[in-house]
Write a structure and sequence with these properties.
By secondary structure, the protein is mostly helical. The chain has 14 helices and no strands.
Length: about 300
């Protein structure tokens, strides 16, 4: 495959100081993500509508990857990890991934890099399904779905070829688990659903599916990564949610009594609820950033570690 790695790296190093990247609304500062920046360089006639909702909405990763000579799933991960990191780290990441591709791209086994990346993604997803829970049957199924897909990637990483039917069955089982809807499971149930959704997208990449729907395959990898990051962050949020720690009302009101103690108790409960909700949101956001940092690191490692020599 012909590559333009040196050109890509040179451009990446120019994009940041020139202020071509940002995280504002796409129509306030266009383009706002790294793949759009590259695509505008390749096809300057494209508009924001073309890239974000028009003809290149699904083709942008393939167009950029084909031009520079690396797989489209890397371009999709480049974009999604950029969106999940704080701005300064996101701009650094834009250069880091270009540097890594330029240094190792010609000798890397991209197939092995893909499987190693997915194994890392699913390890993050698996963290969202604790091994000890009250609802062991439902959550056990979720854990099994994630583990099953990871095992297929491990088999492929060893150079073996799982049957297409195995990928299809694993993807369908994970989708069923992802769509379970039991309000009693709360946030931890949502975490399990999203972990299973990550497994579903991770299984959809398979060779048969990629051949039939090549333009969607890059998105499946980035979707797997995004759902894994959110699932693990939801589990972190679960640990500080108000529903676990908020005290019961400390007063009851009866006719003929002053309502002040009862109202005071209601207000105290509401204040505690707001404070703990805020703490849960901050915990989720911090955990999400941590997970995107893990995705960044495992993507870079997968490329480096599967390079020859």
């Amino acid at each position: 495959m012909e590559n333009r790695y040196a050109e890509m790296l040179e451009l990446a190093r120019l994009h940041v100081p020139e202020g071509r990247l940002g995280k504002d609304d796409i129509y306030g500062q266009f383009p706002t993500n790294p793949i759009a920046v590259y695509l505008r360089g390749i096809k300057p006639e494209l508009t924001a509508d073309d890239i974000y909702s028009g003809s290149y909405w699904r083709l942008k990763y393939t167009a950029v990857a084909d031009h520079y000579g690396y797989p489209a799933w890397v371009a999709a991960l480049h974009n999604s990890i950029f969106s999940g990191l704080p701005t300064t780290e996101a701009l650094d990441w834009h250069v880091q991934i270009a540097e890594t591709i330029a240094a190792f791209g010609e000798s890397v086994d991209w197939g092995k890099a893909l499987h190693r990346t997915h194994i890392g993604i699913l390890s993050i997803a698996r963290q969202a399904i604790p091994s000890v829970q009250g609802d062991t049957t439902a959550h056990g199924d979720g854990a099994q779905c994630v583990t099953r897909v990871a095992a297929l990637h491990e088999t492929a990483l060893r150079g073996e070829t799982p049957d297409q039917r195995e990928w299809d069955v694993a993807a369908e089982a994970a989708l069923v688990q992802a769509n379970l809807n039991d309000p009693r499971r709360g946030t931890i149930g949502r975490a399990g659903n999203q972990a299973a959704q990550a497994a579903h997208y991770s299984a959809k990449w398979s060779p048969g599916a990629m051949e039939a729907l090549a333009y969607l395959a890059p998105v499946w990898t980035s979707e797997a990564a995004t759902y894994a990051a959110m699932a693990s962050a939801l589990l972190a949020r679960h640990g500080v949610e108000w529903s676990h720690t908020l005290p019961f009302l400390e007063a009851e009101w009866h006719p003929g009594e002053s309502v002040l103690p009862f109202v005071g108790s209601l207000l105290a409960r509401e204040i505690a609820r707001i404070e703990e909700y805020s703490a849960a949101e901050k915990t989720y956001e911090a955990a999400l950033i941590t997970n995107y940092r893990k995705l960044r690191d495992l993507t870079l490692s997968a490329i480096r570690d599967t390079a020859a020599g």
